Amino acid sequence: MIIVLKPHTTDKQINHIIEKVKKLGLKPMVSKGIERTIIGVIGEEDILRVQPLEVFPGVEKVMPVLAPYKLVSREFKQENTIVDVSGIKIGAKNIIVMAGPCSIENHTMLLKIAKQVKKAGATILRGGAFKPRTSPYAFQGLGEKGLKILHDVSKEAGIPTVTELMDIRDIDLVERYSDMIQIGARNMQNFNLLKEVGLSKKPVMLKRGMMSTIEEWLMSAEYILASGNFNVVLCERGIRTFEKATRFTLDISAVPVVKKLSHLPIIVDPSHAVGKWGLVAPVSSASIASGADGLIVEVHTDPEEALSDGAQSLLPANFKILMTEVGKIAKAMGRSV
Ligand code: PEP
Ligand code: MN
User: Fold this and answer.
1) Which of 83, 216, 270, 331 has its CA 20 to 30 A from that of 206?
2) pLDDT at 173
3) Can you give the pLDDT at residue 53?
4) CA of 263: how far to CAs of 31, 162, 230, 232, 258, in Å?
5) Whole-structure pTM over 0.90, yes or no?
6) Within-domain flag for 77
């Protein structure tokens, strides 16, 4: 249920409604827009049929939210959400590009990549320290050592970071060393992990599960918002289909679909979607043309020797070319990089 307030409703009136909703055993979530304030109500909403809130001063209308996700929906909040990652605004006019290696391997390599991707226009550095690998024998990431490298490089190169969290037990470490928490495709429905990052003050990038529908994905985002963290960026990274030419199939239509259903920003990961470096640039351009708010791209100075995902990693020189191409599309879309 959402309670739409009249324009110019006073704080006193808003607080009165909030108190009333709480007394009914429901959870109010306030969203202050430019035009008007909306209060989302979570819980057994049936009670509102007996206790009509329309009678309270300041209330314009009370409406049911038809989608199963509430706080994530456009019905709850009409304006686009802008997520701030240490000063970088995702979901605003500028397209933002996150770039870096799949895994953090060592300090020298990460610093070199960070400087080059920043120079080419990337504004957030990516790099995994906890790696979700299909094989238990494959490189699992450097763990805390990797996070420390990420933090040091972030300070040296002057660029904020995003890194994956796989386990609730590591949340303090990831919060301490990184600016944004990534929830990977394989953990999209790890509901306890979602609740935990929902309690965090750090922004979260939630990747789409490779076998999840858009609705399931938005329900997962709802877990994070329902726990109190509204700073969520969605990331489409390809889904499983019968097609074998690419690693996954990028669901490009997910971008406009999500834009219609939700106020949250959405970015695209072309690297994991296609799995081949030669396809990353054209798919990046298509993503921006479809309305995405940004990209997350894997870049490595020596893809042949990369400890993970070398085949889909761009050399810095090719990343620079990608940035030029993406810049042109962004401009055509009335945006900039
Ligand atoms: C990654 O970003 O390195 C990664 C493992 O991505 P995904 O969760 O989309 O597979
Ligand atoms: Mn990877």
Assistant:
1) 331
2) 98
3) 85
4) 12, 21, 11, 10, 8
5) yes
6) no
